[in-house]
Amino acid sequence: MTQKIAIVGLGHYAKKFILETINSGDQRLEFVVGFDIAENKVEKSIYEILDIKPCSWVKATAKIFPCDVYDSVEVHKDRYNEDKTFKVHPNIKDYGSGCSFSLGHYEIVQKLKETKANIVINYIPYGSVTANGKWSSICLEADCHLINFNPSYSYGFLADRIKESFKNKNLNYIESILRGNFHSSKLLKLFYA
Questions:
Q1: What pTM does this model have?
Q2: Res. 193: pLDDT tops 80
Q3: Fewer CB near the last or first residue (10 Å), C or N of the chain?
Q4: What's the pLDDT at 131?
């Protein structure tokens, strides 16, 4: 069975993971949709931002959709050269601003169901506490497993409630701070063991 993957935050680690999966030759993972806030990624397809041709791992239809900025954007990002950082898409506003360009909670759930994604990998930056809760809620509603590289240690008792909610729905919730060390073979072991 092919695992259909949605990725939240298509930065360096997400790109590395996707390319590693393609290079491994294992076709049991398929990247079907992405969500991001960066001007140079939103409304493009995943294969476009990776500069590769569509293939069995990354479908030509695997688009990157805009999502809200739930917490904030790292202030130090402006200190880097343009090729080392990103700009928030000009039509994306902070969460709760009534922005109609970004997909809201319901639209994201629908997009996950529409693409038949069954695993969401969260690569948003550490410390995005509100976003962590929002994406956990979205995954629960869409019946998706969540691999979360934005650990919720700062949540305290809420982290336990989130994990319990996934368990109650017979879904996996996996947290890790080892973004760069988590690769496709480890993912496959989790879901094919």
A1: 0.82
A2: no
A3: C
A4: 76
